[in-house]
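User: structure tokens for this one?
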Amino acid sequence: MTATPDKAWQPLSGLTVIDFSMLLPGPLTTLIFADLGADIIKVEPPGGDYARGMTSQLFAGANRNKRSLLLDLKSPDAGEVITRLALRGDIAIEGFRPGVARRLGIGADALQELNPGLVYCSISGFGQTGPMASHPGHDLAYLAMAGSLSQSGHWREASRRSSTPVADMAGGTYAAIAILAALREKDNTGMASVIDISLYESMLYMNALRFGFKDDQPSKDHLYPTNDLFTTRDGKQVALTIVEQKFWDNFVVAVGEKHAHFASEMYATESGRRARGDDLMHQLDELFAGENAAHWLSLFEQHDVPATLCITPRQALQTPQSIARAAHVETPHGEVLPFPSIVTGHSPCKEQSPPPAPGEHNEIILQELGFDASDIQRLVTAGAVVSG
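Assistant:
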């Protein structure tokens, strides 16, 4: 059967995810599922997700296409809501420190006793076991402890973190992959897994791919002096990304006889460029400072030299490449960047709902769970369900 070209790709339609997580890692996991068609019931505490109070766009970015239920898990009357959520869900996800979910009545044992087919995922800083399991932390700590910050990302600079919270996003993404694998396993065996995702181990996994296990001192082995940022005459920054030899050869041709020193034998090989990296970067600084960014980008495009301009997030959505790929869609609630995939026969998902107000969907979710008006009023009066 051929897919309808204007139909959005929603392969997870029909799945229900009970999301007890807050901030970024868990909400990123469930955002991925929401983009792919799953129904996300976002269970928030009386004060709402902590990210609602942050100055960044984090809450808005990670929580569209979800429904909010404001539930006080500490209330004795919340138990019957938890029970019906567990029976309704295909997946449950939480992001508390180890032991907290169990004390709140939403641990894996309790929910899977109610629904043995419920795939359960915990995301925490250091995992559910080990001497640091209950240790507090945030993205920077996981990067530091996993060894990521011992190595620099630039030839001439000490290590520094990215503006993107890499550990949080890696852990949230790996959680989505693990849950999908668990759903596949359940299809094959009938068994629903309990998944333990650690943000710290997510970074260990990434570092092992990049650095292996032997580095015990800062090194430049993973860096290239020709793969860095350079400032042009008009004050803009160009990312020159030469790694392969063929692109260096193209660069030498592009800059021509006017800059013949780049064609010197001492720079002809990668080992030569590395050995003289500081000097080479000084030469590149002088080169880029001599012309505006537009000059260099035009010249390099003509000679197949990989380089691009450093731009802002706003500008990134306005590039011809972004527009051509329909990377973002316009909605009545503003611009949205759906899950980044282009699937043959399908269009990007243009049906988007904004991040929910706290408790916005209390009544409709409770009705779907089988509570009638008097039950809902009773839960509100008892303080188990909280009005937004």
